[in-house]
């Protein structure tokens, strides 16, 4: 090729395509475990600070993975009465409760047609390993209605292989609508106070309308019940992530 | 009449969800016999009920002996799981499970399919024969 003044120009190779690999970019998903956020009250924040220090120390020694309600977990605990001193339980996380060091999560599974639930404490030193077998969020925060659902929705294979999940991808939401056993249920799940979206109510429309009688639409506008945790979360997230990196 | 409508034959598992109560086992609780004994599994028009708990308090937890009324007979039984939440790390079952036992501690049935909590292993001396016929542990 000849440029405008007649001299041969140096070959300019085409620009290399830039591949943005999200994994290498390290776009981290910020997940602060809900037990770090202190409950609303008049307790001295020093107590929560000391508890957080203990929680971080435990997390440095033992890895507690990020998990939500609806994930399928396998927990191995040390049990003096078991055969090889370890006890492995696989189940779906129904609820996460408690704050601070007493944070608990309940796993549910149906073994040999018998529904079993175990409440584990996250920071109990008897726990030897927590593996997340399947990452899957559900439509609700609290899956306690699975007790009144058909047992097929709570059965999970004990020897299930962990389903692989890439770091940077978002956690998929399973929009499964669960079918229930015939009434009576342990709680009246159709009532609006439970605000459940994950049940396929096969009740007559009259019952659903009657359940709305107990709705309290003014609750969401009640200013005294507001507890804005965003600033607290930012502070605690910074503190926790710094300590964990050390 | 409500009880008649909901009362399924007790050999089917679903009778355990008749009441939503989450209590331990005491007098007059309906229990579910978990082993494969004939006495526990033949259908009868009344579910097996607890009539006495061999305990200082009248409340039976896992590992306590109780007296059952089954098919018009009295039989001792061992509690292997209840609906009430216990200490953390212990399993909570969806039905009040019980294993039929003789006066000397020998189990009546020959196999227990449903899972049994590991806590019972602590009292290996009293329950060794029951633990020997158990298949799954939780």
TrEMBL record, chain A:
Keywords: Mitochondrion, Ribonucleoprotein, Ribosomal protein, Transit peptide
Subcellular location: Mitochondrion
Highest taxon above the source species: Eukaryota
GO CC terms of this entry: mitochondrial large ribosomal subunit
GO terms, biological process: translation
One Pfam short name: Ribosomal_L19
Main location per the UniProt record: mitochondrion
GO molecular function, one term: structural constituent of ribosome
Similarity comment: family membership: Belongs to the bacterial ribosomal protein bL19 family.
The name this protein goes by in its record: Large ribosomal subunit protein bL19m
Organism, scientific name: Chordeiles acutipennis (Lesser nighthawk)
Lineage: Eukaryota, Metazoa, Chordata, Craniata, Vertebrata
UniProtKB/TrEMBL annotation, chain B:
Biological process annotations from GO: translation
Location(s), subcellular: Mitochondrion
GO molecular function terms noted in the UniProt entry: structural constituent of ribosome
InterPro entries recorded: Ribosomal_uL14, Ribosomal_uL14_sf
Single GO cellular component term: ribosome
Top-level lineage group: Eukaryota
Pfam family, any one: Ribosomal_L14
Sequence similarity: Belongs to the universal ribosomal protein uL14 family.
Protein name from the UniProt record: Large ribosomal subunit protein uL14m
Taxonomy of the source species: Eukaryota, Metazoa, Chordata, Craniata, Vertebrata
